[in-house]
Amino acid sequence: MKNKTFRKAEPYIWILPSIILMAVFILIPIIFVFRMSLSEVSKAGIIRGFSGFANFTKVMNSSAFKLVLRNTIVWTVAVVVLSTVLGFILALILNNEFRGRKIARAVMVFPWATTLVIQASAWKFIIDTDYGTLNTLLLRLGLIDQGINWTPTAEAYFTWEIACGIFVTIPFVTFCVLSGLQSIDTTYYEAATVDGANYWQQLFQITMPLVRSSLTVSTVLNIIYVFNSFPIIWTITKGDPANHTDTLVTYLYKLAFYNGKQGQAAAVSVIGFTILLICASVYMVYTLRKGDE
Amino acid sequence: MTKKSSSPKRIVLRILLYVVVIIVCIVTLYPYFAMFCTALKNRAEIFSMNGTILPITAVWSNFIDIWHRAPMANYMLNSLMIAGGSTIIAMLCGIPAAYALARMKFKGQTIFLGFVIVSQMFAPVVLLIGIYKVMSILSLTDSIIGLIFINAAFNQAFTIWLLRGTFIGISVEMEQAATIDGCNRLQGMTKVLLPVAAPGIVTTLIFIFINAWNEYTVALCLISTSEREPLTVGINVFNGYNMIEWQYLFAASLFAIVPVVILFMGIEKNLVSGLASGGVKG
Fold first, then answer.
1. What are the pLDDT digits (tens) for A182-233?
2. I want to staple A117 with a disulfide (CB 3.0 to 4.6 A). Which of A231, A248, A288, B123 is the partner?
3. Does B31 touch chain A (CB under 8 A)?
4. Under DSSP, is residue A32 helix (H, G, I), strand (E, B) or coil?
5. Interface of B with A in 195-234 (CB under 8 A)
6. Is B150 within 8 Å of chain A by CB?
7. Is B266 within a domain?
8. pLDDT tens digits, residue range A102-146?
9. Which residue of chain A is at minimal alpha-carbon distance from B52?
10. How far apart are CA B163 and CA B98, in angstroms?
11. Are residues B179 and B84 in the same domain?
12. pLDDT band at residue B57 using 50, 70 and 90 as cut-offs
């Protein structure tokens, strides 16, 4: 009898440490954030009582929020879409047999393994108008006569940040697609060649459907990571000037820790993960359904 | 009949392939090249009007100077402790959970797995306010132990995901045989399953280590004492408001990058197949 109770309880004992860890450091913070988003919060972070949706209306009515929301969408869509396309093409290239393929793979690891804050610092240095190495390089190669101002406007800065985001995201897509490609049975292609299918037909009829699941994994994870990405923008511009390069995460960081508006910051958090949850689940449902057809 | 490999079209494609690969490699490595060259320059050369690509004279002493211009040894040690501690805790909690998910059937299994996956959606940065509050309650703000637990928690999803996939991929027969020989579940796991699963476990371990080593945002927010900062935050002492000491910043950065890049190269293959399959299997 005792044995039977133990066997029923046993799985829960095994997962208990993990549950405690995630409950304390993820679930409780989630609850706090939701509670604070609906409360009046003092500058010191003390909850002063329920305030309904006041924080949300305050946030949504602020002029900065529209801009920040737009930036976040542009940032996420541009980085995810472009890095997925480029990463996919790169994977197709690296999937060929050629000399030095191992070296090329090793090179691709660099941006993936490097902490974003350092990668972003390097970019900030490279694109600097006065002493950046991009200008130096172009000058020395004789391609330009004088230094170009690469960042004349906030939009230009934001574009560079997007480029940096794409740069660091490509390897993950490439490796995911590569692992999918390498599991494809080569006899499919042989049969298709016999049937007279050309390269593009093979790409769209065989390759694409078979790497869909790897591509889905990488895209869903990238949507989440890119949306929540903080270090690149923080290092290069800190969201300045005047919120022109802010995304939701840098905006909420400033609200909470610079301006002492924790209630509003919590509201931004809630808005953020609501958007993310909707996007990620819509994407997943869409691709899974497409895969079933 | 012409051989397939020597048709003109194929040769052109080959050359094109090499050109593209070489360009991609150059572009990818360029930031590292720039960092390395800059780390070897003196201040005057970096800010001079006639910029150079390679340093005129390599100032190797920059790599030594950083150790007494900033508490680099502290940063390094802190990063090691944070990454090592997070890895140990994430594994201690994650291995049993992944084992239960792979080998047992219980009520709430799907809910648990669902929560694990959804937890991926909450990056620490959106929860910072909540995390900060929890940390104040536990009086773990400005502490390395606090960072260790946060990193461990936010890496649980990956740990469980990767390990569950690894465990499912290993046949249960050996463990069943061990049970007949009188082993209990715990012994069956530690003596039979874990040695076989070693490659997957090492991959997961290194991946968490790198994630925690590279973590920036939470450390930036929670740590207020300079001596407790990890490398990612600490090196920004060279990134002052008025003056950026690029040579030192990049010299220090290289110390933060090189170890993890090497580690990552070792696990890349296993990691990717694990990520891509962990969620699908079972």
1. 777 788 888 888 888 888 888 888 888 888 877 887 888 888 889 988 999 9
2. A231
3. yes
4. helix
5. 210, 213-217, 221, 232
6. yes
7. yes
8. 888 889 888 988 999 999 999 998 988 888 888 888 888 888 887
9. A136
10. 6
11. yes
12. confident
